[in-house]
Amino acid sequence: MINRCIIINGGFGLEHLDLVERDIPEPGHGEVLVRIEAVSLNRRDVLLAQGVYNPKQKLPIVPCSDGAGIIAALGPGCTRHAVGDRVVIHMFPGWLAGEPDRDKLATGLGGPRGDGTLRQYMVMREDSVVALPRCISTEAAATLPCAALTAWSAIVESGQTRAGDSVLIQGTGGVSLFALQFARMCGAHVVATTSSAEKAERLKALGANAVVNYRTDRDWASTARDLAGGRIDLIVDVGGAETLDAGLRVVRPGGTIALVGVLSGAKAEINLPLALMRQVRLQGVTCGSRESLEAMLRAIALHGVYPVIDSRFPLAEARSAFVRMAESAHVGKIVVLPH
Fold first, then answer.
1. CA 170, CA 34: separation in Å to the nearest integer?
2. Nearest partner of 182 among 263, 285, 322, judged by Cα
3. In this predicted model, what pLDDT tens digit does every residue of 247-303 receive, in sequence order?
4. Which pTM value belongs to this model?
């Protein structure tokens, strides 16, 4: 049997995504072999392939951090799982619980420490994969480790969103749509921003109470605040450079901005005295621990939160999946099916 993999090979750029064949690895002590059934893309994966995320990244490398599948074999000493278990892979195998630190964050898959999930088989530490509730498919689970867990951390753990709060989300990417769903799950009033009438209808169908088109409304942040009844408790900011200062001006005194992305640039000019005098909390959010992933899975199973899947691609067409994300043509998650 062979292990078909996508690798970034010979240089950066989406044209350097190649399909190769490797041997299926053997799990060692405390490790499991996972037959990957689904992988989802994140913006980080495209930036990695383009050489933006880490220009010093050593190549070749298997990209992607998100995946789910079935345990195909157990190494010696495994006790948590059995062959045939359906599992989701935790993006940070070394971050099992507690607050993040440098060592835990350095274990992220599909990055400086090594290969990611875009392949048919991979070996993982047994304690870094999580069993799935019956109601969550492996395809749905593959969308969760990065985007959903980041949204969960922003809305539930850092944001501590409660019924009646007002939350502002930006766009229709994976994190934003999960943030919308989790905020509504908590009973919050959600205002969303987008760039088209078509996407606005999708947001409303998912439960957004109001939508602002930031392309046609130059003062979109103030409009969003008005639509939230004059009070925004939490902003889930994915834009970064072009959105952070606007959010700072409309979030309530004592409110929170959860910074989860930098789609419009990595350096921003913000009004520091305003943040100081209004006691605004700026919270960076990077996914979460395995413990948080387990809590999120329980909530998803209980409340019936289903991911929005934009499109699906076979492994041989993975490059097309990366192009679709690079062009921001998607609404929701893009999934690659290795088998």
1. 35
2. 285
3. 999 999 999 999 998 776 778 788 888 888 999 999 999 999 999 999 999 999 999
4. 0.95
Cis peptide before 112 (omega within 30 of 0): no
Phi-psi group of 166: left, alpha or beta (phi > 0 → left; psi -120 to 50 → alpha; rest → beta): beta
Tens-place pLDDT, residues 188-231:
999 999 999 999 999 999 999 999 999 999 999 999 999 999 99
Q: List the domain boundaries for the chain.
A: 2-143+307-337, 148-284
Query: C-alpha dihedral over 8, 100, 180, 310, to 10 degrees?
Result: 20
Residue type, 303: H
8-state DSSP, 325: H
The matching CATH number, chosen from 3.40.50.2300, 3.40.50.300, 2.60.120.10, 3.90.180.10, for 2-143+307-337 is 3.90.180.10
Q: At what angle do helices 318-326 and 43-50 cross, to 10 degrees?
A: 100
pLDDT at 40: 98
148-284 carries CATH number 3.40.50.300: no
CATH topology of 2-143+307-337 equal to that of 148-284?
no
Cβ neighbors of 216 (< 8 A, separation 6 or more) are none
Residues of the chain with pLDDT under 50: none
3-state secondary structure 133-198: CCCCCHHHHCCHHHHHHHHHHHHHHHCCCCCCCEEEEECCCHHHHHHHHHHHHCCCEEEEEECCHH
